[in-house]
Amino acid sequence: MVKILFVCHGNICRSPMAEFIMKDLVRQAGREEDYFIASAATSTEELGNPVYPPAARELAAHGLGCKGKRAVRVTAGDYDRYDLLVVMDSYNLRNLGRIIPSDPEGKIHRLLEFAGRSEDVDDPWYTRDFETAYNEISEGCKALLARYISE
Fold this sequence. Notes:
Blueprint: E1 2-8, H1 14-28, E2 35-41, H2 53-61, H3 78-81, E3 84-87, H4 90-99, E4 108-110, H5 124-127, H6 130-149
Parallel strand pairs: 1-2, 1-3, 3-4
């Protein structure tokens, strides 16, 4: 089983979008039993909060739900629990490094790396562009799944 943890700053926009997009892609591929997918925050400021309403609306516009999801924080122990820890941007990468100071197994990646891109997924909390965030996250998740299905 491949265990993937998506990580962003607050776990209310990008990482839960990635979690539910990836769960849907895995379901469509008929591989649900082969994957465990979750998401978490590097910060504590949104802990316990639901997915931010504009992010939830963007997911819903694509037929995806996120009911019951509440923000949680990544822990040092998550490094051992997951095969991949996938961050949305360089800022998340830096903050994750404060929680998980080393990556000896090469488990930590930025999402768009899987799509062959060096850009970050901009935080729609600030940009207010949830559609672009959805599209970039979807692109990264599709590329990530293609990598693992082909292995």
